[in-house]
Amino acid sequence: MASKVKLQVVFPKGAFGAGGDDTELERFLRRVSVHFSEDPDGEWAEKYGTGYEDETILIHPYCWCGKKDCAWCTGMAPNFWHKPSGFKVWWYKYIGRGMETAGEQPGLTTLLRELTKRRRSVVIGTFRVLNDAGEELGSV
Ligand SMILES: [Zn+2]
Question: What's the pLDDT at 19?
């Protein structure tokens, strides 16, 4: 006699990129990542983010290097940083998973419009990790 077993597989939020239940912040991060990615499909920027920095923003995908002095693996450096407002976002592996923010979130509709008008520009220098007192903890 055969019996039926119901199996439910649960994937973490963001595991397949964009989803219908994405928040405004998640949609913003996906759009900005795809916009500034050199290879949006190859690196699946919509899911992981991308590597990009200019005078206004920094985006860095979740880092898997595991090095003890890596600013991203240690959680010191955010995955998204809007420099003028100080707004920062961290995520675990994928945009939308285990996200944490710091600082006041700027108006995302306006910011998205402003950022996506721009093209990629040259990455500027070194990313410096500062503590709350403004002291440099390290750089990458
Ligand atoms: Zn790392």
Answer: 80
